[in-house]
Amino acid sequence: MLGNHGKQILELADGVDNRTVTPYADPKSMGKEHTFQQDIQDFDYLKDVLRLIAGELSFEIHQKGLYCRTVTLKVTYDDMQQITRSKSGEATKKTGEIYSTAVSMLDKIEKRPVRLVGISLSGFTEHRQMSFSSEKEEAIDNTLFRIQQRYGRHIIKTGSELGAQKRLSDGD
């Protein structure tokens, strides 16, 4: 009834498929988000959460040897209304640049209780156009990454990350 396709459909239904499996595809985006137990109205608190998320995402794209061009902020309000804001620019993998981009978008949204906040990165590339002034920053960033990669993500932190963690733990 199905002709030549009938045999293939029957084999697929029986779990027989001789095509090669391609287990890995380049990521299109990467993100992290945090859902709060209670709605958060303190936007400085949200900025601390974004700082820590930016650090985690920066570490992940460092591991993959990638830079991102687009940073997307995701916010879900207390009434479950969800908004996203994106900004594209020069390729980066630096925590500070990811963080400052996300915060600049957070500063422009409506200030009301938030249930979830997150950052997504996209527009990945393996190359970045570097200026002379950014070479030192890149060297410091790469050194921090290598230390974290060797001894663990949380073995070394910037002062701003430590401050954010402390403020978040004091708020609990």
Explain this structure:
- With 172 residues, this protein is α+β, with helices and mostly antiparallel strands.
- The protein has a single domain (29-166), classed as Dna Ligase, domain 1 (2-Layer Sandwich).
- Helices cover 44% and strands 24% of the residues.
- The protein is built from 5 helices and 4 strands.
- The chain has a 4-stranded antiparallel beta sheet, with helices on one face.
- A hairpin with a 4-residue loop joins strand 2 and strand 3.
- The longest helix is centred in the first third of the chain and has 21 residues, at 43-63.
- It is extended and about 70 Å long.
- The N and C termini lie far apart (66 Å).
- 21% of the residues are buried.
Strand content: 15-25%
Regarding quaternary structure, how should these chains be classified? Answer: single chain
**What is the number of E strands?**
4
Distance between the termini: 66 Å
CATH topology call: Dna Ligase, domain 1
In CATH, what is the homologous superfamily?
A: DNA polymerase, Y-family, little finger domain
Mean pLDDT, to the nearest integer, reads: 88
Largest sheet, order of strands side by side?
1-4-2-3
Main attributes?
172 residues; alpha+beta; Dna Ligase, domain 1; 4-stranded antiparallel sheet; 5 helices
Summarize the topology.
Layout: H1 4-13, E1 29-40, H2 43-63, E2 68-77, E3 82-92, H3 95-106, E4 114-122, H4 132-151, H5 159-171
Antiparallel strand pairs: 1-4, 2-3, 2-4
Helix pairs in contact: 2-3, 2-5
Summarize the structure.
This protein has 172 residues and is of the alpha+beta class. The protein contains five helices and four strands; from the N terminus they run H-E-H-E-E-H-E-H-H.
